Structure formats: C-alpha cells, structure tokens
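Appendix C. Worked example: PaaX family transcriptional regulator C-terminal domain-containing protein
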Amino acid sequence: MTRVELQETEHDDVDGANQSVGSGNGRRPQTLVFAFFGGVIHGRDLPPIPTAVFLRLFGSLGVAPAAARATLARMTRRGLLERVRIGRAAHYRLSPVGDAIVRKAAQRVEAPAPFEHPDGQWTLLSYSMPETRRDLRHRMRAALTWAGFGGLRDGLWIAPGLVDVGEVFAEAGLTEAAGLADWFAAQPLPGVQVEDFIRRAWPVDRIREEHDRFIQKWWTWSDEEDPLAQLTLLGSDWLRVLQADPGLPARFLAPDWPAAQSTSVYRRCHQALLPAAERRLDVELGLATVD
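Step 2, the predicted output written as structure tokens:
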C-alpha cells in the first residue's frame, strides 16, 4: 500500500476512529483494515466481509464499535472500500483503488529482503517552490517523506534505491509538483561520507527503535489468542516498520542494525499464524465448520 494512503492525518479522524489500540504503538483502525485485507484476504477468492466480522475483530483489538463503523464508512467515502448489501447486512470488499494499494504493498511486504536495495543506488530530488505556495510545499514534503525520502538540505532530498517519483506525485495528487522538481539516479563519489548524510537525512535512532519495538513485541506470542486478530496486529505493526525504514543500507549503520532480525521475526510469525487465521475467518464466513 502506498505511504500516502496509509497516513491518517488528524483531519481524517471521525468519532475517535483514529484512536490507538493495543500497547500504545499507535495502531490505527484504517491501517488495521488494510492489514486485515493484505494479511488474510489478499490472494484468496473470498466473498465480501460482513460488518459483524469487522466489529468482532476490531472489538478484540480494543476499537469501539462506533470507531470501527466510522472507519469503514470513511474508507468507503474515500473510495478504498465498496459497501455491498447482502440481505439486511452490510458487507465490505476492497475497491479497485484499495485492491491496487494492497497489491502494491504486498510487493514489499512479501519481499525476501524488504530493506535492501541494489548497492550504491540512490534517488536524488531537488525542487524550487515559490513562497506563495507554502500549502503545496507542505503536501510535497509529506509525500516525499512517506515515499522514503529524507531531506539533505533545503530543497534537496534523497532516497535509497530507485524511486518512481512521478508515480509518488501522481498518487498524492501532486501532478503540478512534477513541474517544480527534478530527480536523478545518483551514486556517491569517492570521499563522500555516506554514514554522515544518512544521519542528516533520516532519524536513524528512531528508525532503530521501530525495529527494536517490533522484535520485542513479536519475539513470542500467545497461541491461545485469536489468530486472526494476531495476524492483523502483526501486519499493522510490520507496516509501521516498513513505513519508518525506507531501506537504509545496513553496511553504513551500526554492526547490529536490526533490519534483518525484524524481517526474520515477521516471516516466522506470519508463517505460524496464517493457517489458523485463515481457518478462523473461513469459519466466521460460514465457509468451514468448527472442528
């Protein structure tokens, strides 16, 4: 999923739908919905999901029914979900836009090494913004940040790997920004201290904290808890890590940089939880019977 769609700003909040749940890690209902569809629906031919399933799942994650309903309604208005009435009950499925977001996110979520890029590849972007367009400047900076860019200097940004900047602007509704920016594939020349510009451009210590928090949380989990809820939380927490770390090259960071370990923990937990989570959902949808 795109970084822009996953970002829930304050003006999007409805009736407390942006409340954090769990252990204070800032899990948000919209991200939980995306994690649910990406974790247990993606790749399976399933019918639309009844509202009752979302209410039960969200309730087990500490989200009030009113907040859950507000989230579903807001995502439907934004064209991320489609509401289908079957009998007297409302059901939801991903819209084509929402499905595209989940499919795109899956490319990185399912990547064997989601924090690695071809060695030495960077994307450099510069822009010049009139002072009268401060609103555009703010939106542009937000889009670049969520696309993995870090600011080197005023008007000069850099991201690891090769980033399709035109697509980033298009997804953020910033097509006019493309005419104010230039971007290039870049490679540091001899003498450049890569370690230094990485720490100038990104909050490396906070990114490490995200990895460490994920590892501490998911190193172990209880088999007695609802596997569907656990898989949804796992996906939500993992998306948070992926959003925080654009794939900073570990060889320029501390020897014990935790990206590889957090990836291993995610893979192990996902493989352990997925079969039981799929089984639980199938039972709730009436596609399987309780053993």
